[in-house]
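Backbone shapes recur. Consider a single case.
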Amino acid sequence: MTQKTVTLNNDVEMPLEGLGVFRVEDQAVAAQSVQAAIRAGYRLIDTAAIYQNEQGVGEGIKAACKETGLKREDLFITSKVWNADQGYASTLKAYQDSLDRLGLDYLDLYLIHWPVEGKYKDTWRAMEQLYKEGKVRAIGVSNFQIHHLEDLLDGAEVVPVVNQVERHPRLTQQPLKDFSEARGIRLEAWAPLMVGELLQDKTIGAIAEKYGKSAAQVILRWHVQGGVIAIPKSVNEGRIKENFAIFDFELTEADMAAINALNQDHRTGADPDNFDF
């Protein structure tokens, strides 16, 4: 199945769907999941230093390229600088450390993992430096609210290409989506399936039945059809394949509106305005 992409604000093409590996702490399982995803057609793999699986992800990338004949440049690899490593010099070091663990020469996208107060602007300066030197193809942020973005953009030389946030039908993040898109920042959804909590929802189930698709496929289609990049996590090869089979149908405007109406501003993860890690 052909992977669909979006053009970021610096003209880099990014796949609309990828594999997330949060809480996949076993290196071998991480490697197997990544290899299965690339075999199934995924080209975007999203990890982070704090996940402690970059080594396994790198091994999976290497094995998948050997198996499929793909080259490194055919893939889009994301990692993130962790909160304890934020700051100018420490971010530059953290980036190289991630590359070393992954066994890669560059990342396609590097993100600030959380908006650590008093640090994220210095972190962003370091990321701008990496970008200007051609060491990373694109830079962005994660878990930034509107006011964080406003603060970052005040004085930034490079506009983030992506803001990766918790997003699903119970947390549509519409004001943040509108604000970000107006400034050329693409939204990317972590926990796009609400950690499985929405798979029994009646509204989504009825839509899924209409198309002969699963609830997960309908939710993921809602994300990408709305222009949001989605990174569902799974270590099950069957589900990895199922999650990717979303580019052969299209939801109607009424379907999209019905799913949007499920919003309750409900988070499963930490609040970006109130986190302590």
